[in-house]
Design brief:
The complex is a heterodimer of chains A (243) and B (139).
Chain A: E1 4-8, E2 11-15, H1 23-30, E3 35-41, H2 53-62, E4 69-75, H3 85-91, E5 94-103, E6 106-111, H4 115-118, H5 130-139, E7 143-146, H6 157-163, E8 171-176, H7 183-194, E9 197-201, E10 213-217, H8 224-232, E11 237-240
Parallel strand pairs in A: 3-4, 4-5, 8-9
Antiparallel strand pairs in A: 1-2, 3-10, 5-6, 6-7, 10-11
Chain B: E1 16-20, H1 26-36, H2 41-44, H3 46-51, H4 61-75, E2 80-88, E3 98-108, E4 113-122, E5 127-136
Classes of the chains: A alpha/beta (243), B alpha+beta (139).
Chain lengths: 243, 139
């Protein structure tokens, strides 16, 4: 194994060597990989989205937004056509795709969409069955998570009294960059009461709102499949960068 | 970044337009209503608006768009506003403090146009209105 030697401040650190003895070196050796993704964003592909994906990337870099990437969760659709790999490579940003569908419990993020799942139900329909969406996601290796559950009308909490507690929910969005008032508190309380895990996403519709909330994973991930695996591993943390 | 710009070359990606607090008073909405021929209580009278199921009198959407346009012209007096595209997420309540903000998120130097993220937020920092504006500046 090749060993490089580099001076960092007052410390000498061996990179790639077996023995790392300096305090900083020990810290580096212990450091685990993490990735922070904004799990809920919209581009001009959504009817109310006003952001171009390229401008999201420019913004993240220009403003040093503390995220490693984002998931485009367009409303009532899955965008099979767009290929953002060149943008991702150019800016060094992970760009993944998901969807935001509408159920009787409000809006729901879907991660790991594939053609098999897309054929199971009509993404464009409002009033889908949440339990059916969850069941079909499980069948096709995807994952569904109700978003902004504390929001009136389009959030899950508003529908619990009428429909009861749905089966199959494990994860909900507890930090949403577009929340008003106490919506995030309502979401967090529901998650605590029902034993759900929380993710974060900005719900950005314009460029400058990306990264306001996000999710930190104790792993690296670069594909939709790895994102679903990381969510199913249930080791993540919702974070907020709202000022 | 100066408070005003005169041409596209002076605009930087990510720069913020000078924000301002719009006059959301019912006096102003009444004045606006008089000019445009709207005298609905939903814009001019809190009690009347509540009777219509609103939380109080609200600022008309086109007046909000006017505030957003005013911000752009304060920043770039020679700009031609090509479009103001807004999403009204929640009402802008009259007689309540709000802040208008704008941020440059795209520049097309060939066309001489800029795209600006625009928002109207209330005192709690909630986005009531957001969208984008496109403005053409002299080269």
């Amino acid at each position: 194994m090749r060993t490089a030697r580099r001076a960092v401040g007052d410390f000498d650190v061996r990179i790639g060597g077996r023995s790392v003895e300096t305090p900083l070196g020990k810290q580096l050796q212990k450091a685990k990989p993490t990735v922070i993704l904004d799990l809920h964003t919209h581009s001009i592909k959504s009817d109310d989205g006003r952001a171009k994906v390229q401008n999201y990337c420019q913004w993240i870099r220009a403003k040093s937004v503390p995220i490693d990437g984002f998931v485009l969760t367009e409303h009532r659709q899955f965008d099979f056509e767009s290929d953002y790999s060149e943008l991702a490579s150019k800016f060094g940003i992970t760009i993944l795709k998901g969807a935001e569908v509408e159920t009787e419990y409000g809006h729901v993020l879907v991660f790991g969409v594939n053609e098999g799942l897309y054929d199971e139900f009509d993404f464009t329909t409002i009033g889908l069955s949440l339990e059916n969406v969850i069941e079909k996601c499980e069948k096709h290796g995807a994952l569904a998570a109700p978003c902004h559950p504390g929001r009136p009308r389009v959030g899950m909490v508003a529908h619990l009294e009428e429909h009861g507690i749905p089966n199959g929910v494990r994860i909900v969005e507890t930090k949403n960059g577009g929340s008003r008032g106490n919506e995030d508190d309502v979401a967090a309380k529901m998650a605590e009461d029902l034993g759900y895990l929380g993710i974060g996403g900005s719900d950005s519709h314009i460029v400058s709102h990306i990264g306001r909330c996000a999710t930190r994973f104790p792993t690296t991930l670069a594909t939709e499949g790895e994102l679903v695996e990381a969510l199913k591993a249930e080791e993540f943390e919702a974070i907020s960068n709202k000022h | 970044m100066p408070d005003t710009v005169s041409n596209i070359g002076e605009v930087e990606f990510g720069s913020e337009l000078p924000s301002f607090a719009p006059d959301t008073s019912t006096d102003n909405t009444k004045r606006f209503g008089k000019y445009v021929g709207w005298d609905s209580p939903r814009f001019t009278d809190h009690e009347g608006a509540r009777k219509e199921g609103l939380p109080g009198a609200i600022v008309p959407g086109v007046l909000s768009q006017g505030f957003l346009g005013a911000m752009i012209h304060r920043w770039a007096p020679d700009a031609e506003i090509i479009a103001i595209d807004t999403v009204f997420r929640a009402p802008v309540l009259a007689d309540a403090p709000h802040t208008i903000t704008g941020t440059v998120t795209d520049i097309d130097e060939d066309e001489g146009t800029v795209e600006i993220d625009i928002t109207i937020t209330n005192e709690a920092g909630e986005n009531r209105v957001f969208g984008t504006a496109t403005a053409k500046l002299p080269k």
